[in-house]
Amino acid sequence: QVQLVESGGGLVQAGGSLRLSCAASGITFGVYTMGWYRQAPGKQRELVARIANGGTTVYADSVKGRFTIARDNAKNTVYLQMNSLKPEDTAVYSCAAMIVVAPKYWGQGTQVTVSS
Q1: How many other CB atoms sit within 10 Å of the CB of residue 104?
Q2: Which of 94, 72, 75 lies closest to 20, judged by CA?
Q3: For the chain: N or C, fewer Cβ within 10 A?
Q4: Buried b (16+ CB within 10 A) or exposed e, 27-63
């Protein structure tokens, strides 16, 4: 049974930081690209960042320089360090195990709320 379990969301003031974690089980973690997506109310889900097994990363323009994605293959975990948070970063953040750029498995999501 595949499980992706996110943690680390919460309420933070603008300018603050949060670190999200996503622990995977039931998959061969190392063969997947791992991604973080977010969906704000009334908006489409969007890719925030992804990291390939070899470490190559891709970021949305809106988070470049503020967010950092990392993975620990020994722990089957992917992280999203979010700094200089803005109210517009408020969303449900979900991790995904991806085949190249297509999500195959999803976590349940964690709420991030940034107050102004």
Answers
A1: 13
A2: 94
A3: N
A4: bebeebbbbbbbeeeeeebebbbbbbeeeeeebeeeb
